[in-house]
Design goal:
Elements (H helix, E strand, L loop, with lengths): L3 H28 L3 H13 L5 H13 L9 H22 L3 E2 L2 E2 L1 H9 L2 H27 L3 H22 L5 H24 L4 H28 L2 H4 L13 H9 L6 H4 L9 H13 L2 H18 L7 H15 L4
Antiparallel strand pairs: 1-2
Length: 336
Amino acid sequence: MSHTWLTEVRSGVEEHLDAYFEGERAPLGALAPEADELLGAVRSLTMRGGKRFRPALLFAAYRAVRPEGGLGDVIDACAGLELLQSYLLIHDDWMDDDDERRGGPSVHTMFGASTGDRRLGASLAILAGNLACAQSWKLLTQAARGREDVLRVVMAMHEEVLVGQQLDLIESANVSRMQQLKTGSYTVKGPVALGAALADASPAQRDALMAYAEPIGEAFQMRDDLLGTFGDPEKTGKPCDDLRHGKRTALIQIAEERADEATLAPVHAVLGRLDATDAEVAAAKACLEQVGARAALEARLDGLIADAEKALQAPLEPAGIEMLRGLAGALGRRSV
């Protein structure tokens, strides 16, 4: 895909976020000077990197309905999505006990180091995540301009991701549903629905956009599962340690459908064992490949991308269709 427009979205959103954070310093500092530490943590994580796919999806969906529209029309919503992402990442890293995010320390790790107290660091990280949540709602409410239909999209997206996170934590057997709610909801479906709502999409346009978003949301999580096991931490900016953390991803589910307990012994020997050696993890990865789990998941992922691309047709506008088609491949076949 052409990266020109995507680069423009990234730079535009980051400029808006930077200005927003700077504008928040005075009012938060008036409450208490110490609040700058929470704001600084949110700013550090948010501006540290990130692919900005969520704003890109929102803008592409908007353009699929309003081809004459500009990024400035939806910039508050785009920035609000990035802060929603920061809030969820801060809390998710603490829940998963991940010490690294986007090539730097996770927020609870950062506060734990600065205070010398792991528990206090975690508590401050929860507050920083809540601050990011409040700020995301501030921006998203500005973007809605009092429109209840837009706010309903935001509320549904927020509720779905929380239920999805619950299903992940309790290791629900319905991995597909967990993926749709935890990641698909706010990574693809929510941003696309938000772009459609802001553009006043017709029912037919909205249906087409949702037919695109549903499979892409699941494909994104499947790629995340593959990266969480087979990815390169130097590229992803976070540990690729799903096996040691015992995550029952689609990869594990497929493997258990295809092989018996004895065959999968190398996998089950490391699943959920933080002290598993590198050699043991390597053996588990080899096993997943040998039973065909990795190849099967890749095939499912390709099928989902194909399903999404079929939905990209009239009454959607060609400019937005091209943007959404490029994003389908970028999201489903990314290496970071």
